Structure formats: structure tokens, C-alpha cells
Amino acid sequence: MNTTTPSSARVDLRSDTVTRPTAGMREAMAQALVGDDVFGDDPSVNELQEKIAKMLGFEAALFMSTGTQSNLCGILSHCQRGDEYIAGQMAHCYRWEGGGAAVFGSVQPQPLTQQADGSLALQDIEAAIKPDDAHFAKTKMVALENTWGGKVLPQSYLNDYSNFVQEKGLARHLDGARLFNAAVAQATALGTSPYAEVKNITQCFDSVSVCFSKGLGAPMGSALCGSKEYIAKAHRLRKMAGGGLRQAGFMAAAVSYALDHHVTRMAEDHQLMAHLAQGLAGIPGLQFETPQTNILFVDLVGEAKSRGAALQAHLKSEGIDMTGLYRLRFVTHLDVDRAGVDRAIAAIRQFFGA
Ligand SMILES: *Cc1c(COP(=O)(O)O)cnc(C)c1O
Asked: Atom 15, ligand 1: which residue's CA is nearest?
């Protein structure tokens, strides 16, 4: 639990982006050595870029303002005007980024309906790859997202995807906003190291974008990782996208601190989410799958379906925040503890008289 957050505070289950920097992180930021990163002079940014590239097994990395900027520069470093990228219908880099790759890069997205586990069926990818013909955009890249809606893509699928997409001569991009949640969950299930699982996942891709402002608990930032040549292209694009920051080392120092202290602890977020799901089990009108990481989607069905707004208002009055009306979303993170989750369970049970 984050000691800068009083336990009497609201229980904020809206998103893992709501965390405030911990005391240790604030100290690391205060002590950070900084310089002008547009000149390449910021030691803290340079250190972070080397660190994350190494952790993910790539030659190079670039610190980005946001995950959206990172995916945008990531896609445009693989694709030119008139090219196309394949992504899930519900993928963040297709659906939730304002169509940036199309707007700024004239790159056409080809969305595909995902399987229930978040994967793209290889036969669907194959059918969507355009022939080399003047009628079509040129297919260049296939993006996956892991975790997707809190689900961990199976490692065996990633391996198959990787071989298949490479055979087709296309680039493999991972939107790994919550890569570390996936790796920690995988490590917990297998009894292995999260750091080893990070690399098992990332070795299936040519480029990976990872968010630091989510489960890792940093105030902002993402990184794009890839080959030196690829990151050099992304560096130019980042400048065009207004992402050339100056003394960004204050943020990079917060991220480095998070990478040192907040990775393995994500297992606690996952346990807390499992605890929340157990606490909600058996309430009539609530339907959900067992959560795999730190996100739980709950569908309101039957008579409960029309009660979403009232539930949200009730929880708000009890000091608990979450999002959604028919499909509720709960997220655990660094700034929630077991007492907070117990308060949420009790308030929801009370509302449904369960
Ligand atoms: C949050 C998120 C992003 C974008 O990150 P921002 O920093 O909010 O721009 C990209 N992909 C996924 C899967 C995300 O959850």
C-alpha cells in the first residue's frame, strides 16, 4: 500500500492510472540528475532507456510521454503512407487512440474480431493480409495487446503468432501497456521469474510499447523498444508528435524507481483482484469471468441490468469509485489495499441485499 495515501481516502477502483507517487519515488525524483533530452543530455532518461531496453531484450528504447504516443510512433516506424496494420477490433491501438495512425500517418488500420482470450486467429490474419496488387494497401504489421482487458495471451499462442507473422514477412508489434502484469501473472502460474517471463513475451515481437503510468505506478510515461534502426526512426517521429521533452529525467527517475520496486509487487494487485471476485461471487445479476490480473469486468444481467447507475451512485456515497454502467470495471493497483477492497465488497453486497 502506498503510504502517501491515507487509508481513510476514497477507494478508487476506476483505473490503475490513478496512483500517486510513493514516498520513495518522490525521493528518487527529487534526487534525479537531469539535462536537456532533446540534446540527448539527460542522464536519467538515458539510463532508463538502457534499462528498459535490456529488461525487454531489445537493442534500444525511447521514453515517450504516453502509451498513445508510443503506439503512434511505433506504428509509423513500421508503416508508410498507404500501408496497413492489422489489429484487434477492440485493440487500444485501433479503437481508443483517435485513429491517430490514419490521421497523422495515412496508415490504414485493418481491424479483426478478437477471440475471447484477446488473440487474433492466425487464419483471420492470413485472410486479411492483402495480395501485392494495385487495389490494396500494403499490409506491413500485425499488432497484439497483452494483457488485453486484463487477460494474459497464452505464451504458446504468442510463439505461434510470432512464427506465422515472421513467415509472412510482416512486423510484429506488441501494445504491452500492461506487459508487466502479464509477465507477473505468468510467473505466478508457472513458479518462474517475472523478469524471465517478460523476455519470453517480448521475444515474440519486433517492437514493444510499455506503459509506466499504470500498474507500475509512475506519474507518466511509456517506452517504445526495438532495434537501433527502428528506434532512430521513432525518435524523428516522436519529435514531430511533439514528444521531444527537455528535463524529462524527473519522470524517468520515477520510472526507474518503479522498475526496481514495483514489478514483483504486482502479484499483490492480482491477489487483491482475486479477493474482490471471490467477494462478489454468487450475487444474483452479476456475471464475470475469473480475473487473471488486476482488472475485473462485471456484466449486470437480468433485473440488475438497469441498476448500474444506482449502484455507481451508492458506491460513490460509500467512498468507492469505479466505472461502467452495464459492464462495470474494477481495477486494483498500488493505491488500494485489502481493507479498501473489503469495503467495496460490503457496499456492493449491501446494495444487492446479498
Ligand atoms: C492505457 C493504454 C494505452 C495508452 O496509454 P496512454 O498513456 O493513456 O496514452 C495503450 N494501450 C493500452 C492497452 C492501454 O491500456
From this structure: 177
Q: Which domain covers residue 49, as residue numbers?
A: 23-261
Q: Is residue 212 domain-resident?
A: yes
CA distances from 192 to 182, 196, 286 (A): 13, 7, 34
CB 178 within 8 A of CB 293: yes
Residue 286: give its domain's CATH number.
Answer: 3.90.1150.10
Closest Cα to atom 10, ligand 1: which residue? 67
Contact call for residues 194 and 187 (beta carbons, < 8 A): yes
Q: What is the reported pTM?
A: 0.96
> Which atom belonging to ligand 1 lies closest to the Cα atom of 220?
7
Cα separation values, 235 from 64, 134, 170, 337, Å = 10, 31, 22, 39
Could you tell me which residues come within 8 angstroms of residue 36 by beta carbon, excluding any fewer than 6 positions away?
A: 42, 246, 247
* Cα 1 from Cα 3, distance rounded (Å): 6
- Residue ID of nearest Cα to ligand 1 atom 6: 67
Pair 228, 333 in one domain: no
**Quick one: CA dihedral 255, 69, 110, 225, positive or negative?**
negative
- pLDDT digit string, tens, across residues 297-354: 999 999 999 999 999 999 999 999 999 877 999 999 999 999 999 999 999 999 999 8
The amino acid that residue 341 corresponds to is: V
Please state the domain count of the chain: 2
Q: Which residues pair with 207 in a beta bridge?
A: 173
Q: Which of 57, 51, 76, 335 is nearest to 221 (CA)?
A: 51
